Amino acid sequence: MSQIEFYKYQGTGNDFVMIDNRQQQFPKNDTKLIAKLCDRKFGIGADGLILLELSKLHDFTMKYYNADGNEGSMCGNGGRCIVAFAKQLQVIETDTIFDAVDGLHEAHIKDGIVSLKMKDVAEVEQFSDYMFLDTGSPHHIAFVDGIQDFDVYNTGKSIRYGAPYFEKGTNVNFVEQQNENTFKIRTYERGVEDETLSCGTGATAVAIAAYHSKKTSKNNVFLETLGGTLEVSFGTDTNSYKKVFLKGKATMVFKGFFEL
């Protein structure tokens, strides 16, 4: 049996198994293994697994897998964590450009705070009782009252599998405004199929949705998740959003080995 070293990282409570896979030793097509490693009772426990791999043109490549073992769309908090991981591995120093499933990302890290550039957002769909946009992952956003006692799991699950998303699904965010540019957010994540303590692409989507729907006039927005506070800033160009940055702490929790 061979041993694989892993690291556990978290960004505002969104936690990940991180593996240095520059030598291509990890069997990344083994969805059952990935799901087992992410299992909180029979494995390491995480919302997802992230591989740091070589890139032909940039500092590294990020490969993200959901807790169900399948390769996922972009994960914002995971992106922040892999920047901290790359710094720990001495792949980068303070600034980086890396490859991810939704394209290139720039990032800066200082004192454990990672500022991650997200993809531009060209379209925000606004309906009578919800909004929808893609920030690297798809997000359904509903502004609600009494978010602390809101049934995120059951309501989120019904929306995630319901029309118009069905099997492909979406992440579902419930939001309550606190002041002019602060919003509380709770997220049901597809792939995890449960509420998570934080969702980076969700926080990004909520910040843009709040501005787009004129709930705030600020282009720097604070998102209070169950796991801590994230900051999102962006620039506007007619109805599109550019220079979108997700900022917050990314921390190593522990490291260890598992046997294949």
Automatic annotation (TrEMBL):
Taxonomically, the superkingdom here is: Bacteria
Q: Where in the cell is it found?
A: Cytoplasm
Keyword annotations from UniProtKB, A to Z: Amino-acid biosynthesis, Cytoplasm, Isomerase, Lysine biosynthesis
EC code: 5.1.1.7
Main subcellular localisation: cytoplasm
Q: In which pathway does it act?
A: Amino-acid biosynthesis; L-lysine biosynthesis via DAP pathway; DL-2,6-diaminopimelate from LL-2,6-diaminopimelate: step 1/1
GO MF? diaminopimelate epimerase activity
Q: What class of enzyme is it?
A: isomerase
Q: Where does substrate bind?
A: 14, 66, 76-77, 171, 189-190, 200-201
Which GO cellular component terms are attached? cytosol
The entry's active site is 75, 199
State the family named in the UniProt similarity comment for this chain: Belongs to the diaminopimelate epimerase family.
Role this protein plays: Catalyzes the stereoinversion of LL-2,6-diaminopimelate (L,L-DAP) to meso-diaminopimelate (meso-DAP), a precursor of L-lysine and an essential component of the bacterial peptidoglycan.
Question: Which NCBIfam families does the annotation name?
Answer: DapF
The cross-references to HAMAP family, in alphabetical order and at most eight, read: DAP_epimerase
Query: How does it associate, per the subunit comment?
Result: Homodimer.
Q: What is this protein called?
A: Diaminopimelate epimerase
Gene source species? Aureibaculum algae
